Each structure stands twice: as structure tokens, then as C-alpha cells.
Amino acid sequence: MANLLSRNGVVAITAAISPYQAIRDEVRARSSNFVEVYVKAPLEVCEARDVKGLYAKARAGEIKGFTGIDDPYEEPPNPEIICYTDGESVAESVTKILSKLEELGYI
Known about the structure:
- It is built from five helices and two strands; from the N terminus they run ααβααβα.
- It has one domain: 3-Layer(aba) Sandwich (Rossmann fold).
- A two-stranded parallel ribbon has the order 1-2.
- By secondary structure, it is mainly alpha-helical.
């Protein structure tokens, strides 16, 4: 859907859990203006932020195929933007994203 909107001049922002590089590469290849924002946080930070307790359930074996626990996460090798959420404030990450989008001519 985002690709269709984008092709018609509409800005589309998606938040996707996409742990595999091959899938991200496939999506990038389909779009001429794909911008990857890697929202990076160490696993222990993700677990500490988990209000639903999903990481604990995955560690207990109650959830199978959970990214970062028993399923891999392949870090993107060359994202356009990296937000280090364990060291940046939300405002700093937003500024970083907006600055890059300006630099790329999207805004």
C-alpha cells in the first residue's frame, strides 16, 4: 500500500517489524524513494520497555519465533537514518529524521 501511495506522490510512512535483510531489500527495490530508518535499541532495552511481557513469554518458551530471542534480527547494513533510542531523546531522533528527509528533498 505504501508503495502505491508513494508512486502517486503521497508520503507514506510505515512502521514494520522486518527482521530479515532480504525482505527489506525487496521492499527497497520496489520503491524509488525508500528511506530506511533503523530504530536501534539493544535487546535488554527492548525487554525493559516491554509493557506486554512478550519478551518474558518468549524467554519462557511460550512464544516461538520471537525476534531477538529465538529468531534472528539482521541489522540493516546501510540505513539512511539510525535512531539510537537508548541514547537519544525522542526529540533528537525526530530532528535527525526530519533533517535527513530535508537533505533528501522529501520535505
